[in-house]
Amino acid sequence: MAIVKKKKVAAAAKATPESTKKAVKRPVSEGEQTPKKKKKVAAKKVQNGDTPAKKKVKKAKVVEEEPIEEVEKLQLMDDDDEEGLNELNFTQHDGSDDDLRDDYSDDDGKCHSHSRINGFCFDLDDDDLPIEKKSAALDKKKEKIMKEGEEELQLNIANQATFELPTVEEIENEMKSVPNLEIIKQRIADVIQVLGDFRNRRDPAKSRTQYVEVLKKDLCSQYGYNDYLMGKFMDLFPNGAELLEFLEANDNPRPVTIRANSLKVKRRDLAKNLINRGMNVDPAADWTKVGLVVYDSQVPVGATPEYLAGHYMIQGLNSLLPVMALAPQPGDRVLDMCSAPGGKTSHIAALMKNSGTLFANDASFDRCRAIIGNLHRLGVNNAVVCNLGGEEFAKIRPNGFDRILLDAPCSGTGVIWKDQSVKTSKDSQDVQRRHTVQRQLILSALDSLDANSPNGGYLVYSTCSVLVEENEAVVNFLLERRHCELVPTGLSIGVDGYTRFRDYRFHPSLSMTKRYYPHVHNIDGFYVAKIKKLSNAKMSKQAVLEKEKEKATQKSQKKKQAAEDNDSDDSGEEEEVTTNGQANGKSEKKKKQKKGADADESDDDVETAPMKNIGSGARANKKRRNQKKAAAKQAAVQEDDGFNTVGNIKRAKKPTQFKSKVPKRAAARTGAKSIKNRRKKVLAKQQ
Amino acid sequence: MRPLTEEETSLVFAKLASFIGDNVSMLIDRNDGDYCFRNHKERVYYCSENLMRQAACISREPLLSFGTCLGKFTKTKKFHLQITALDYLAPYAKFKVWLKPNAEQQFLYGNNILKSGIARMTDGTPTHAGIVVYSMTDVPLGFGVSAKGTADSKRADPTALVVLHQCDLGEYLRNESHLN
C-alpha cells in the first residue's frame, strides 16, 4: 500500500522534466503531415516553372520554420532526405514576384512575431501562402501544448504538496523485510522538502514530530546509524541539506596528510625528497606551514626511509589545530595529557625547539609505547613519557605547568570515516561516561596549570567529537567551577562554538571556541577551546570575587580600628599589645583563607560553619547533611543529559574485589604464631 | 631512576667509545647545560639535569621514558645500544659507511651489509669497530660493527659481509614495543 503511494509520489516528483519532454514529443506525432504537405506545395510551384530566388526564399523558409523547428526536430531527423528535396524544390519556385516577395518576407517576419503572442495574426490577411497558414496552425498547436504542459506542471506541484507520510510503524515493518534503498532515498528527499517549507507543504493531519520521526528512521537505515546518534546529529544540523552533506562526508575518507618535522627538515626539502620517492605531495593548506597533503603514492607512506628517519609524521590536519592554538614557547613547561600516539606531542616539541620540558602522558600503557617510539624517531629529547591517569597531575604537580594540551578521550563522532563502528556503538550511556571523564580531566588539567607563570597559564581543550555535550558543555562547566576565562584561539578557520544550543544557554564567551566539520572544512570533525587561568584558587569566579571583597572590607575595617585605637590609646606599651593582637588576628585570618582556598567549593559552607561544641551532635548533623547532599547529587546525575553545569560527577562504581576472609599471612602459614605452632609440633614429634 | 654505578658507567662509555671514540666527552661537557646519564628500570637514559629533576616527580612505575634512551642492560649485565641512540651517535661517529640506494632497503629490513651495497666507507676502519650507516643523502640509517676493515673489504668479493647489522631505523616499525 505504502509502496504504491510512494511510487506515485516519485512519479510526481520526476514529472517536471518528463512533462516537458512529452510536450516536445506530442506535436511531433501530430505534425507528421507537415513535410508531406510542403512537398505538394513545392511540387505545384515547380509546375508553375518559376525561376529561383534562392536567398530570399530561404530566408522566408527560415522564418517559417523557426517555431516548428524545436517541435519537429525528431521527425525531421527521420526523413531528412525528403527535407533536402523540399529545399531543392523551393530553390526553383517563384522568382517572378521578386520585389513582392521581398516585402512579404519582411511582413511575414513581423507577423510571425505577432503570431507568437496571440496566434491570430494570420487570420487577418486571407491571401497568405498555404505554407504560412500551416505554420500558423503549427504555432497554435504549440501554444496549446505549452498550456497543457503548464497545467501538468501545476498538477505536479499540487501532487507534491500532498506527499503522504507513512507512519513510523509502517516504516519499521518495511525495515523488517528487505528495504528498498531507492524508495527510502526518495522519501528522505521528500520529507526534507516538506520540512523546508513546513507551513505550506505539510499534510495538516500530520505533526512536525511525525515527519521528523520518519526522517530519522529513514536516515538511520540509509546511512547505518543508531537512533540516538542520528537524533544528536539532527539536533546539531537542523537544516536537512546540511545534515545530508555531513552524513555523506562521514562516509568519505579525508586525504592523507603528513606533518613535516621542523626539528629535522624543512617542508620544502621534504616535499622534494618525497616527490623523488614517487609520492605526489602538495602543501596542505594556507594556514599551516608544516602540513603536506599526499594525493597518491607508489610507496607506503608510513614506511619510507624519510618516515623512519623522523622527517615527517602522518597525522590529520585537524591535529595541527590544537597545537597551533596552544602556541608553546621555547622553555615552557608543557603537559600533553592524553598524548598517544604522540603526533601532537612531537609537534609541540618542534615548536618548543626541543627546549623546556614536555610531559607526555597517556592512561593506556600500550599506547604509551607508540609515544616513546614516535618521540625518539622524531628526535624529541625534552620529553618525559608517563603512564598516569589524567587526574593525578593535579596532585603530583599542582600549578606546575605553563601550558597544557588536553585532547580529551571522546566518542569520536568527528572521525566516523576512520571507525564506522561509532555509528552504531554509541548510546547515551557512552556519551555520558565520556563527558564525565572529560569534566574530571579538564578540572584536573586546570588545577595543574600555573596562573602566575609569566607567559603561560593556558589550557587548550580539544576533542574529535562534534557533540555539544562533549565540547561546549564541558568548557562551560569549567568556566563555572574555576576562575578562568576563554581567550581567542588564534586560528583563522573554523566555525564559532555555540553559545545557545536548543534550550541550553552557555557563557557568551564560548563563541571564541572553534568547531570544525568534515563537510565544511574537509578535515575531521573537531573542537578547540583555549582557556586562560586567572588565579590558582580552586574556586569559581564568583567565589574568588567574593573572597576579594571580603578581604577588602576586612582591610578597611582594620584600618579603621587601628585609627581608632591610635586615637584612644596614648601609652606606647598598650599600643604594642594591640598591634600584636592585630598581627595574631591577621595570621589567623590568613590561615582561614588558605584553608578556604584549598578546600573544595562544596565543602566551603561546612568548613566555615561553627564547630565549637563537637560533643553536641554537630558531627552527626554534619554527616547527615553530607549524606543528603550526596544523595541529591546522585539523583541529579541520574537525569544528566550532558548539559548540567552544576558539576555533579557521577561516581563510577568500582568493581567489587574479591577479598578472602582468611588473612594473607595465615593463608601462607608464615605468620609468627603458625610457625611457632608448627615448630612445637615438630619438636613434639621428635621427642 | 638512579645514577649509573662505576661498573655500569664503564660499560656504557666503552660501548659509546667504540662508535664515537673520544667524542664521548662531548656528551658530558656540553655548553648548553648539564647533561647526565641515568639508569631507570635497567635502561640508560641521557638527558639534561633539569629534565631529569622534573621527571623525578613521577614515581618509578608510571615513568616510562625521559630524555633519550641510549640502550639497556641485559640480564647478564651487558650493555646493548638501541636505535634510539642514533641521534647522539651519528653526529660524532668516527667510522662511517654510505649505502647505495638499492642496499638501503636491505639494511632497513635488518640484514647485514654486503660489499656490493657499499658506496663509500671511511678510510682506515679497523675490523670490529663500531660503524654508523648512512644513506647517500647523508641520512643516518643505523649502526653496526665492521666485519672487515677498509683495506680488507677492498680486496673482498662483492658478496662478502662488510658490516654486521646491529640496529636500524626499521626497528621503529618492527619492534616498537621493545623500545621501552
TrEMBL record, chain A:
Ordered alphabetically, the record's keywords are: Methyltransferase, Nucleus, Ribosome biogenesis, RNA-binding, S-adenosyl-L-methionine, Transferase
Q: Which GO terms describe its biological process?
A: cuticle development; gonad morphogenesis; maturation of LSU-rRNA; negative regulation of cellular response to heat; negative regulation of locomotion involved in locomotory behavior; positive regulation of egg-laying behavior; positive regulation of fertilization; positive regulation of multicellular organism growth
Q: Which Gene3D superfamilies did the record assign?
A: Sun protein, domain 3 (3.30.70.1170), Vaccinia Virus protein VP39 (3.40.50.150)
User: Which GO terms label this protein's molecular function in UniProt?
Assistant: RNA binding; rRNA (cytosine-C5-)-methyltransferase activity
Acidic residues bias locations: 564-577
Active-site residues per Swiss-Prot or TrEMBL entry: 464 (nucleophile)
- Entry keyword annotation includes Iron-sulfur: no
| Compartments where found | Nucleus, Nucleolus
For this UniProt entry, what's an example GO CC term? nucleolus
Q: Which residues bind S-adenosyl-L-methionine?
A: 338-344, 362, 407
* Ranges annotated as biased composition (Basic residues): 620-631, 650-667, 675-687
Which domain of life, per UniProt?
Eukaryota
**Carries keyword S-adenosyl-L-methionine?**
yes
Q: Give the start-end ranges of region Disordered.
A: 1-63, 545-687
- Domain SAM-dependent MTase RsmB/NOP-type: start-end pairs: 246-534
InterPro entries recorded: MeTrfase_RsmB-F_NOP2_cat (IPR049560), MeTrfase_RsmB-F_NOP2_dom (IPR001678), Nop2p (IPR011023), RCMT (IPR023267), RCMT_NOP2 (IPR023273), RsmB/NOL1/NOP2-like_CS (IPR018314), SAM-dependent_MTases_sf (IPR029063)
Q: Which Pfam families match?
A: Methyltr_RsmB-F
CDD domains this protein is in? AdoMet_MTases (cd02440)
What NCBIfam families does this protein's entry cite? nop2p
Q: Which family does it belong to?
A: Belongs to the class I-like SAM-binding methyltransferase superfamily. RsmB/NOP family.
What is the official name of this protein in its record? Answer: CBN-NOL-1 protein
User: What is the species of this protein?
Assistant: Caenorhabditis brenneri (Nematode worm)
UniProtKB/TrEMBL annotation, chain B:
The similarity comment for this entry is: Belongs to the NIP7 family.
Q: Does the keyword Nucleus apply?
A: yes
Mention any Pfam family matching this sequence: pre-PUA_NIP7
* Name of the protein in question: 60S ribosome subunit biogenesis protein NIP7 homolog
Q: What PANTHER family does this protein map onto?
A: CYCLIN-DEPENDENT KINASES REGULATORY SUBUNIT/60S RIBOSOME SUBUNIT BIOGENESIS PROTEIN NIP7 (PTHR23415)
Its annotated compartments are:
Nucleus, Nucleolus
- Single Gene Ontology MF annotation: RNA binding
Matches recorded under InterPro entries = NIP7_N, Nip7_N_euk, PUA, PUA-like_sf, PUA_sf, Ribosomal_synth_fac_NIP7, UPF0113_PUA
Domain of life of the organism in this record?
Answer: Eukaryota
Q: What does this protein do?
A: Required for proper 34S pre-rRNA processing and 60S ribosome subunit assembly.
